[in-house]
Amino acid sequence: MFLFSKKKKVQESYDREMLTPMIRASICTGEKTAGFREKHGGQFHEVMLVRTEVDLKEFKERYGITEEIETFY
């Protein structure tokens, strides 16, 4: 039956020439947010909250990111 079927993971894309994947971390609380930062202008676009390494792995898989992600505060 269809009760136990798995969701298909859809790989999303982003403009690699205009955006850089980054992790924004709060100095006070330690909260981390994954998203993309514009190369020109520096505006950060949040995508998801990162609580564990599993969340970070999911973010990387969703957007096909293989390189290390930089963290800024």
- As a percent range, the share of helical residues equals 10-25%
Distance between the termini: 48 Å
**Integer tally of domains:** 1
How many β-strands, per DSSP?
Answer: 4
Strand content: 25-35%
Quickly count the helices: 1
Radius of gyration: 14 Å
Largest sheet: 4 strands, mixed
Strand order of the largest sheet: 3-2-1-4
Q: How confident overall, as mean pLDDT?
A: 88
Low-confidence stretches: none
One letter per element, helices H and strands E, the order comes to EEEHE
Alpha-beta content class: alpha+beta
Shape: globular
List keywords for this structure.
73 residues, 33% strand, globular, alpha+beta, 4 strands, four-stranded mixed β-sheet
What does this structure look like?
The protein is 15% helix and 33% strand. It has 73 residues and is α+β, with helices and mostly antiparallel strands. It has one domain. Strands 3-2-1-4 form a four-stranded mixed beta sheet, covered by helices on one side. Strand 1 (19-25) and strand 2 form a beta hairpin. The relative contact order is 0.26. The model has no long low-confidence stretch (mean pLDDT 88).
